[in-house]
Amino acid sequence: MSLPKANSKDQAVVALVSGGLDSLVVAAMVKAAGYRLFALTIDYNQRHRVELEAAKTAAKAFGAERHVILPVDLTQFGGSALTDAAIDVPQASDNAGIPITYVPARNTIFLSLALGWAEAVGARDLAIGVNALDYSGYPDCRPDFIQAFEKMAMAATKAGNDGDAFRIHTPLIELSKAGIVQAGLDLGVDFGISWSCYDPTAEGKPCGRCDSCHLRAKGFAEVGVADPALV
Amino acid sequence: MSLPKANSKDQAVVALVSGGLDSLVVAAMVKAAGYRLFALTIDYNQRHRVELEAAKTAAKAFGAERHVILPVDLTQFGGSALTDAAIDVPQASDNAGIPITYVPARNTIFLSLALGWAEAVGARDLAIGVNALDYSGYPDCRPDFIQAFEKMAMAATKAGNDGDAFRIHTPLIELSKAGIVQAGLDLGVDFGISWSCYDPTAEGKPCGRCDSCHLRAKGFAEVGVADPALV
User: Domains plus CATH for chain A?
Assistant: First the structure.
Protein backbone atom coordinates (compact mmCIF):
# COMPACT_ATOMS: atom_id res chain seq x y z
CA MET A 1 0.00 0.00 0.00
CA SER A 2 1.23 3.44 -0.84
CA LEU A 3 0.18 6.54 -2.72
CA PRO A 4 0.14 6.57 -6.52
CA LYS A 5 3.03 8.56 -8.02
CA ALA A 6 2.35 12.29 -8.45
CA ASN A 7 1.23 13.27 -11.97
CA SER A 8 3.47 16.32 -11.92
CA LYS A 9 5.88 18.06 -9.59
CA ASP A 10 3.15 20.61 -8.86
CA GLN A 11 0.67 18.11 -7.46
CA ALA A 12 0.14 18.75 -3.77
CA VAL A 13 -1.17 16.66 -0.90
CA VAL A 14 -2.60 18.05 2.31
CA ALA A 15 -1.56 15.47 4.89
CA LEU A 16 -2.68 15.29 8.49
CA VAL A 17 0.47 15.05 10.59
CA SER A 18 -0.22 14.50 14.28
CA GLY A 19 3.32 13.63 15.25
CA GLY A 20 2.39 10.01 15.92
CA LEU A 21 4.14 7.07 14.32
CA ASP A 22 1.49 6.50 11.64
CA SER A 23 1.44 10.10 10.46
CA LEU A 24 5.22 10.08 9.97
CA VAL A 25 4.97 7.12 7.64
CA VAL A 26 2.21 8.87 5.68
CA ALA A 27 4.32 12.03 5.32
CA ALA A 28 7.26 9.94 4.15
CA MET A 29 5.05 8.19 1.58
CA VAL A 30 3.71 11.51 0.27
CA LYS A 31 7.26 12.77 -0.32
CA ALA A 32 8.46 9.44 -1.76
CA ALA A 33 5.63 9.53 -4.30
CA GLY A 34 6.78 12.96 -5.50
CA TYR A 35 4.10 15.27 -4.12
CA ARG A 36 4.41 18.71 -2.60
CA LEU A 37 3.62 18.24 1.09
CA PHE A 38 1.26 20.57 2.96
CA ALA A 39 1.32 19.34 6.55
CA LEU A 40 -1.66 20.04 8.77
CA THR A 41 -1.54 19.50 12.52
CA ILE A 42 -4.61 20.12 14.63
CA ASP A 43 -3.86 21.34 18.11
CA TYR A 44 -7.12 20.14 19.63
CA ASN A 45 -5.82 20.92 23.10
CA GLN A 46 -5.05 17.23 23.48
CA ARG A 47 -3.72 16.36 26.89
CA HIS A 48 -0.66 14.66 25.40
CA ARG A 49 0.88 17.98 24.25
CA VAL A 50 4.29 16.53 23.39
CA GLU A 51 2.73 15.17 20.19
CA LEU A 52 2.74 18.72 18.75
CA GLU A 53 6.50 19.08 19.11
CA ALA A 54 6.91 15.77 17.30
CA ALA A 55 4.69 17.08 14.48
CA LYS A 56 6.89 20.18 14.06
CA THR A 57 10.03 18.10 13.85
CA ALA A 58 8.39 15.71 11.39
CA ALA A 59 7.06 18.43 9.06
CA LYS A 60 10.56 19.89 8.85
CA ALA A 61 12.21 16.49 8.41
CA PHE A 62 9.93 15.59 5.51
CA GLY A 63 10.34 18.92 3.71
CA ALA A 64 6.79 20.22 4.09
CA GLU A 65 6.25 23.25 1.88
CA ARG A 66 3.99 24.64 4.57
CA HIS A 67 3.10 23.43 8.03
CA VAL A 68 -0.02 24.78 9.69
CA ILE A 69 -0.66 24.01 13.35
CA LEU A 70 -4.27 24.98 13.80
CA PRO A 71 -5.74 25.35 17.30
CA VAL A 72 -9.25 23.87 17.53
CA ASP A 73 -10.06 23.44 21.20
CA LEU A 74 -12.06 20.22 21.38
CA THR A 75 -11.89 20.26 25.19
CA GLN A 76 -14.82 22.71 24.90
CA PHE A 77 -16.90 19.69 23.90
CA GLY A 78 -15.27 16.98 26.06
CA GLY A 79 -16.50 13.41 25.88
CA SER A 80 -13.11 11.68 25.59
CA ALA A 81 -10.21 10.63 27.78
CA LEU A 82 -7.99 12.57 25.35
CA THR A 83 -9.83 15.88 25.77
CA ASP A 84 -11.45 15.73 29.20
CA ALA A 85 -9.25 15.79 32.30
CA ALA A 86 -12.10 14.22 34.29
CA ILE A 87 -11.76 10.98 32.29
CA ASP A 88 -8.71 8.79 32.94
CA VAL A 89 -6.64 7.48 30.05
CA PRO A 90 -7.14 3.73 30.42
CA GLN A 91 -4.47 1.07 30.34
CA ALA A 92 -4.51 -1.23 27.33
CA SER A 93 -7.16 -3.90 27.39
CA ASP A 94 -8.60 -6.52 25.11
CA ASN A 95 -12.12 -5.25 25.63
CA ALA A 96 -14.13 -5.11 22.45
CA GLY A 97 -16.00 -1.95 21.50
CA ILE A 98 -15.01 1.65 21.02
CA PRO A 99 -12.73 2.88 23.83
CA ILE A 100 -13.05 6.05 25.90
CA THR A 101 -10.08 7.54 24.00
CA TYR A 102 -12.41 7.94 21.00
CA VAL A 103 -12.77 11.70 20.39
CA PRO A 104 -16.25 12.41 19.00
CA ALA A 105 -16.05 13.11 15.26
CA ARG A 106 -12.29 13.79 15.42
CA ASN A 107 -11.32 12.51 12.00
CA THR A 108 -14.41 14.14 10.46
CA ILE A 109 -13.27 17.46 11.90
CA PHE A 110 -9.64 16.91 10.85
CA LEU A 111 -10.52 15.89 7.29
CA SER A 112 -12.96 18.80 6.95
CA LEU A 113 -10.18 21.22 7.82
CA ALA A 114 -7.79 19.45 5.44
CA LEU A 115 -10.48 19.69 2.76
CA GLY A 116 -10.83 23.43 3.30
CA TRP A 117 -7.09 24.00 3.03
CA ALA A 118 -6.81 21.72 0.00
CA GLU A 119 -9.54 23.52 -1.87
CA ALA A 120 -8.06 26.92 -1.00
CA VAL A 121 -4.63 26.00 -2.42
CA GLY A 122 -5.95 24.04 -5.40
CA ALA A 123 -4.99 20.59 -4.10
CA ARG A 124 -7.30 17.64 -4.72
CA ASP A 125 -5.38 15.07 -2.67
CA LEU A 126 -5.61 14.52 1.07
CA ALA A 127 -3.78 11.94 3.15
CA ILE A 128 -4.45 10.57 6.61
CA GLY A 129 -2.84 7.76 8.56
CA VAL A 130 -5.98 5.89 9.60
CA ASN A 131 -5.73 2.18 10.09
CA ALA A 132 -8.59 -0.28 10.18
CA LEU A 133 -6.75 -3.43 11.25
CA ASP A 134 -4.66 -2.77 14.30
CA TYR A 135 -6.81 0.23 15.15
CA SER A 136 -8.38 0.70 18.55
CA GLY A 137 -11.98 0.31 17.42
CA TYR A 138 -12.50 3.88 16.18
CA PRO A 139 -15.33 4.10 13.63
CA ASP A 140 -13.67 7.01 11.80
CA CYS A 141 -10.70 4.85 10.80
CA ARG A 142 -12.64 2.53 8.51
CA PRO A 143 -12.90 2.45 4.71
CA ASP A 144 -16.65 3.10 4.68
CA PHE A 145 -16.14 6.33 6.60
CA ILE A 146 -13.45 7.46 4.15
CA GLN A 147 -15.68 6.66 1.16
CA ALA A 148 -18.64 8.48 2.69
CA PHE A 149 -16.40 11.49 3.33
CA GLU A 150 -15.20 11.55 -0.28
CA LYS A 151 -18.79 11.54 -1.53
CA MET A 152 -19.75 14.29 0.88
CA ALA A 153 -16.72 16.36 -0.22
CA MET A 154 -17.95 16.26 -3.82
CA ALA A 155 -21.31 17.71 -2.77
CA ALA A 156 -19.75 20.21 -0.36
CA THR A 157 -17.22 22.07 -2.47
CA LYS A 158 -16.89 24.42 -5.41
CA ALA A 159 -14.35 21.97 -6.86
CA GLY A 160 -16.78 19.08 -6.55
CA ASN A 161 -19.51 21.23 -8.05
CA ASP A 162 -17.20 21.70 -11.04
CA GLY A 163 -16.84 17.91 -11.34
CA ASP A 164 -13.43 17.73 -9.68
CA ALA A 165 -13.17 14.91 -7.12
CA PHE A 166 -11.10 14.91 -3.94
CA ARG A 167 -9.09 11.78 -3.22
CA ILE A 168 -8.43 10.79 0.37
CA HIS A 169 -5.33 8.63 0.48
CA THR A 170 -5.19 6.16 3.36
CA PRO A 171 -2.02 4.21 2.60
CA LEU A 172 -1.95 2.55 6.03
CA ILE A 173 -5.57 1.53 6.25
CA GLU A 174 -5.02 -2.21 5.73
CA LEU A 175 -1.57 -2.55 7.26
CA SER A 176 -0.80 -4.10 10.62
CA LYS A 177 1.21 -1.97 13.05
CA ALA A 178 4.23 -4.13 12.17
CA GLY A 179 3.57 -3.44 8.46
CA ILE A 180 3.47 0.30 9.16
CA VAL A 181 6.74 0.19 11.12
CA GLN A 182 8.35 -1.82 8.31
CA ALA A 183 7.08 0.59 5.63
CA GLY A 184 8.53 3.48 7.59
CA LEU A 185 11.89 1.78 8.06
CA ASP A 186 12.00 1.07 4.30
CA LEU A 187 11.59 4.82 3.69
CA GLY A 188 14.23 5.75 6.25
CA VAL A 189 11.80 7.25 8.77
CA ASP A 190 13.40 8.16 12.09
CA PHE A 191 10.80 6.94 14.55
CA GLY A 192 12.81 8.47 17.37
CA ILE A 193 11.05 11.78 16.69
CA SER A 194 7.52 10.35 16.83
CA TRP A 195 5.26 10.28 19.86
CA SER A 196 2.39 7.84 20.32
CA CYS A 197 1.61 7.79 24.03
CA TYR A 198 -1.80 9.05 25.16
CA ASP A 199 -0.82 9.59 28.79
CA PRO A 200 -0.75 13.33 29.62
CA THR A 201 1.47 12.70 32.61
CA ALA A 202 4.20 10.92 30.62
CA GLU A 203 7.26 13.15 30.60
CA GLY A 204 9.97 12.47 28.06
CA LYS A 205 9.20 8.77 28.10
CA PRO A 206 6.00 7.02 26.91
CA CYS A 207 3.92 5.35 29.65
CA GLY A 208 4.09 1.90 28.05
CA ARG A 209 0.65 1.04 29.38
CA CYS A 210 -1.98 2.84 27.25
CA ASP A 211 -3.57 1.33 24.13
CA SER A 212 -1.37 3.39 21.86
CA CYS A 213 1.89 2.38 23.58
CA HIS A 214 0.74 -1.22 23.60
CA LEU A 215 0.05 -1.29 19.85
CA ARG A 216 3.32 0.43 19.05
CA ALA A 217 5.37 -2.01 21.14
CA LYS A 218 3.64 -4.93 19.44
CA GLY A 219 4.51 -3.46 16.01
CA PHE A 220 8.20 -3.05 16.76
CA ALA A 221 8.37 -6.47 18.41
CA GLU A 222 6.89 -8.17 15.37
CA VAL A 223 9.36 -6.44 13.04
CA GLY A 224 12.12 -7.39 15.44
CA VAL A 225 13.71 -3.99 15.93
CA ALA A 226 14.02 -1.76 18.98
CA ASP A 227 11.78 1.32 19.20
CA PRO A 228 14.22 4.26 18.99
CA ALA A 229 11.85 6.41 21.07
CA LEU A 230 12.48 4.09 24.01
CA VAL A 231 16.27 4.10 23.73
CA MET B 1 -40.94 24.41 7.16
CA SER B 2 -39.85 24.06 10.73
CA LEU B 3 -38.40 21.50 13.09
CA PRO B 4 -40.53 18.60 14.35
CA LYS B 5 -41.61 19.00 17.99
CA ALA B 6 -39.14 17.68 20.56
CA ASN B 7 -39.94 14.16 21.80
CA SER B 8 -39.14 15.16 25.36
CA LYS B 9 -37.94 18.17 27.30
CA ASP B 10 -34.49 16.59 27.44
CA GLN B 11 -33.97 16.45 23.67
CA ALA B 12 -31.19 18.79 22.66
CA VAL B 13 -30.22 20.45 19.39
CA VAL B 14 -26.76 21.75 18.58
CA ALA B 15 -27.47 24.75 16.37
CA LEU B 16 -24.94 26.77 14.43
CA VAL B 17 -25.55 30.40 15.36
CA SER B 18 -23.46 32.84 13.35
CA GLY B 19 -25.30 35.96 14.37
CA GLY B 20 -26.74 36.45 10.91
CA LEU B 21 -30.44 36.78 10.20
CA ASP B 22 -30.93 33.17 9.12
CA SER B 23 -29.28 31.69 12.21
CA LEU B 24 -31.54 33.73 14.50
CA VAL B 25 -34.62 32.26 12.88
CA VAL B 26 -33.18 28.76 13.27
CA ALA B 27 -32.47 29.35 16.97
CA ALA B 28 -36.02 30.66 17.46
CA MET B 29 -37.44 27.58 15.71
CA VAL B 30 -35.37 25.23 17.90
CA LYS B 31 -36.75 26.86 21.04
CA ALA B 32 -40.31 27.05 19.68
CA ALA B 33 -40.23 23.31 18.97
CA GLY B 34 -39.33 22.63 22.62
CA TYR B 35 -35.68 21.59 22.39
CA ARG B 36 -32.77 22.41 24.67
CA LEU B 37 -30.55 24.75 22.66
CA PHE B 38 -26.78 24.29 22.48
CA ALA B 39 -25.56 27.23 20.40
CA LEU B 40 -22.29 26.90 18.50
CA THR B 41 -20.57 29.89 16.95
CA ILE B 42 -17.39 29.43 14.98
CA ASP B 43 -15.01 32.36 15.18
CA TYR B 44 -13.23 31.61 11.93
CA ASN B 45 -11.43 34.95 12.13
CA GLN B 46 -13.97 36.29 9.67
CA ARG B 47 -13.28 39.85 8.65
CA HIS B 48 -16.82 40.93 9.60
CA ARG B 49 -16.15 40.52 13.34
CA VAL B 50 -19.33 42.27 14.47
CA GLU B 51 -21.20 39.06 13.60
CA LEU B 52 -19.77 37.44 16.75
CA GLU B 53 -21.30 40.06 19.05
CA ALA B 54 -24.64 39.45 17.36
CA ALA B 55 -24.24 35.71 18.01
CA LYS B 56 -23.65 36.31 21.73
CA THR B 57 -26.73 38.48 22.03
CA ALA B 58 -28.79 35.95 20.10
CA ALA B 59 -27.70 32.92 22.15
CA LYS B 60 -28.73 34.77 25.31
CA ALA B 61 -31.99 36.02 23.82
CA PHE B 62 -33.02 32.51 22.79
CA GLY B 63 -32.12 30.92 26.13
CA ALA B 64 -29.25 28.73 24.97
CA GLU B 65 -28.30 26.25 27.68
CA ARG B 66 -24.70 26.62 26.57
CA HIS B 67 -23.03 28.85 24.01
CA VAL B 68 -19.60 27.90 22.71
CA ILE B 69 -17.69 30.38 20.59
CA LEU B 70 -14.93 28.27 19.11
CA PRO B 71 -11.93 29.92 17.41
CA VAL B 72 -10.93 28.08 14.22
CA ASP B 73 -8.69 30.41 12.25
CA LEU B 74 -9.62 29.75 8.61
CA THR B 75 -7.52 32.74 7.49
CA GLN B 76 -4.59 30.30 7.78
CA PHE B 77 -6.01 28.68 4.65
CA GLY B 78 -7.34 31.77 2.82
CA GLY B 79 -9.08 31.39 -0.52
CA SER B 80 -12.12 33.58 0.18
CA ALA B 81 -13.06 37.25 0.35
CA LEU B 82 -14.35 36.54 3.86
CA THR B 83 -11.06 35.19 5.19
CA ASP B 84 -8.35 36.76 3.04
CA ALA B 85 -7.70 40.50 3.32
CA ALA B 86 -6.08 40.43 -0.13
CA ILE B 87 -9.45 39.64 -1.74
CA ASP B 88 -12.08 42.41 -1.88
CA VAL B 89 -15.64 41.73 -0.75
CA PRO B 90 -17.55 42.27 -3.99
CA GLN B 91 -20.68 44.33 -4.47
CA ALA B 92 -23.84 42.38 -5.22
CA SER B 93 -24.11 41.15 -8.78
CA ASP B 94 -26.34 38.92 -10.84
CA ASN B 95 -23.38 36.87 -12.04
CA ALA B 96 -24.06 33.16 -12.05
CA GLY B 97 -21.62 30.74 -10.41
CA ILE B 98 -20.11 30.47 -6.97
CA PRO B 99 -18.92 33.85 -5.67
CA ILE B 100 -15.55 34.72 -4.12
CA THR B 101 -17.24 34.97 -0.71
CA TYR B 102 -17.46 31.16 -0.74
CA VAL B 103 -15.23 29.88 2.09
CA PRO B 104 -13.75 26.50 1.10
CA ALA B 105 -15.55 23.70 2.97
CA ARG B 106 -16.97 26.09 5.56
CA ASN B 107 -20.24 24.32 6.28
CA THR B 108 -18.46 20.96 6.25
CA ILE B 109 -16.11 22.25 8.93
CA PHE B 110 -18.95 23.86 10.92
CA LEU B 111 -21.17 20.76 10.81
CA SER B 112 -18.24 18.51 11.73
CA LEU B 113 -17.66 20.56 14.86
CA ALA B 114 -21.38 20.56 15.65
CA LEU B 115 -21.35 16.79 15.19
CA GLY B 116 -18.47 16.41 17.64
CA TRP B 117 -20.22 18.50 20.28
CA ALA B 118 -23.54 16.74 19.70
CA GLU B 119 -22.03 13.30 20.12
CA ALA B 120 -20.14 14.39 23.25
CA VAL B 121 -23.32 15.64 24.98
CA GLY B 122 -25.58 12.85 23.72
CA ALA B 123 -27.54 14.98 21.23
CA ARG B 124 -28.58 13.50 17.90
CA ASP B 125 -30.04 16.65 16.38
CA LEU B 126 -28.14 19.42 14.61
CA ALA B 127 -29.56 22.57 13.02
CA ILE B 128 -28.11 24.95 10.46
CA GLY B 129 -29.63 27.88 8.62
CA VAL B 130 -28.60 26.96 5.09
CA ASN B 131 -30.80 28.07 2.28
CA ALA B 132 -30.84 26.68 -1.26
CA LEU B 133 -33.20 29.17 -2.92
CA ASP B 134 -32.13 32.72 -2.24
CA TYR B 135 -28.62 31.51 -1.48
CA SER B 136 -25.56 32.98 -3.14
CA GLY B 137 -24.56 29.89 -5.09
CA TYR B 138 -22.73 28.07 -2.28
CA PRO B 139 -22.57 24.30 -2.87
CA ASP B 140 -22.63 23.53 0.85
CA CYS B 141 -26.12 25.01 1.23
CA ARG B 142 -27.91 22.39 -0.88
CA PRO B 143 -29.99 19.37 0.16
CA ASP B 144 -27.64 16.86 -1.48
CA PHE B 145 -24.74 18.15 0.63
CA ILE B 146 -26.81 17.83 3.81
CA GLN B 147 -27.87 14.28 2.91
CA ALA B 148 -24.29 13.28 2.10
CA PHE B 149 -23.17 14.72 5.44
CA GLU B 150 -25.83 12.75 7.35
CA LYS B 151 -24.68 9.52 5.71
CA MET B 152 -21.05 10.30 6.46
CA ALA B 153 -21.92 11.09 10.10
CA MET B 154 -23.41 7.59 10.49
CA ALA B 155 -20.12 6.03 9.34
CA ALA B 156 -17.98 8.46 11.34
CA THR B 157 -19.30 8.19 14.85
CA LYS B 158 -19.64 5.83 17.78
CA ALA B 159 -23.34 6.71 17.87
CA GLY B 160 -23.76 5.86 14.17
CA ASN B 161 -21.82 2.66 14.75
CA ASP B 162 -24.42 1.79 17.40
CA GLY B 163 -27.20 2.38 14.83
CA ASP B 164 -28.16 5.83 16.09
CA ALA B 165 -28.61 8.36 13.28
CA PHE B 166 -27.89 12.08 13.43
CA ARG B 167 -30.53 14.39 11.98
CA ILE B 168 -29.45 17.68 10.43
CA HIS B 169 -32.36 20.07 10.51
CA THR B 170 -32.38 22.71 7.79
CA PRO B 171 -35.70 24.45 8.37
CA LEU B 172 -34.86 27.35 6.02
CA ILE B 173 -33.51 25.36 3.12
CA GLU B 174 -36.46 25.90 0.79
CA LEU B 175 -37.61 29.30 2.00
CA SER B 176 -37.08 32.57 0.16
CA LYS B 177 -35.39 35.35 2.13
CA ALA B 178 -38.83 36.93 2.50
CA GLY B 179 -40.16 33.63 3.84
CA ILE B 180 -37.33 33.51 6.39
CA VAL B 181 -38.00 37.08 7.53
CA GLN B 182 -41.72 36.31 7.84
CA ALA B 183 -41.03 33.09 9.81
CA GLY B 184 -38.81 35.06 12.18
CA LEU B 185 -41.38 37.81 12.66
CA ASP B 186 -44.05 35.15 13.41
CA LEU B 187 -41.79 33.85 16.20
CA GLY B 188 -41.11 37.33 17.56
CA VAL B 189 -37.46 37.45 16.50
CA ASP B 190 -35.83 40.83 17.01
CA PHE B 191 -33.85 41.23 13.80
CA GLY B 192 -32.32 44.40 15.19
CA ILE B 193 -29.67 42.25 16.92
CA SER B 194 -28.67 40.34 13.78
CA TRP B 195 -25.82 41.19 11.46
CA SER B 196 -25.63 40.09 7.81
CA CYS B 197 -23.14 42.42 6.12
CA TYR B 198 -19.91 40.92 4.78
CA ASP B 199 -18.01 44.19 4.56
CA PRO B 200 -15.21 44.27 7.17
CA THR B 201 -15.06 48.07 6.96
CA ALA B 202 -18.73 48.57 7.81
CA GLU B 203 -18.93 50.17 11.24
CA GLY B 204 -22.22 50.09 13.11
CA LYS B 205 -24.15 50.16 9.85
CA PRO B 206 -24.27 47.50 7.10
CA CYS B 207 -22.72 48.52 3.76
CA GLY B 208 -25.91 47.94 1.78
CA ARG B 209 -23.92 46.87 -1.27
CA CYS B 210 -22.61 43.32 -0.70
CA ASP B 211 -24.52 40.17 -1.73
CA SER B 212 -25.64 39.56 1.82
CA CYS B 213 -26.99 43.09 2.36
CA HIS B 214 -28.68 42.91 -1.04
CA LEU B 215 -30.50 39.65 -0.25
CA ARG B 216 -31.55 40.87 3.18
CA ALA B 217 -32.99 44.13 1.82
CA LYS B 218 -34.92 42.20 -0.82
CA GLY B 219 -36.38 39.93 1.89
CA PHE B 220 -37.60 42.77 4.08
CA ALA B 221 -38.95 44.67 1.05
CA GLU B 222 -41.00 41.67 -0.07
CA VAL B 223 -42.49 41.21 3.39
CA GLY B 224 -43.18 44.95 3.45
CA VAL B 225 -41.55 45.80 6.77
CA ALA B 226 -38.56 47.96 7.63
CA ASP B 227 -35.31 46.23 8.60
CA PRO B 228 -34.82 47.15 12.29
CA ALA B 229 -31.03 46.89 11.87
CA LEU B 230 -31.18 49.90 9.53
CA VAL B 231 -33.30 52.10 11.78
Answer: 12-230 (3.40.50.620)
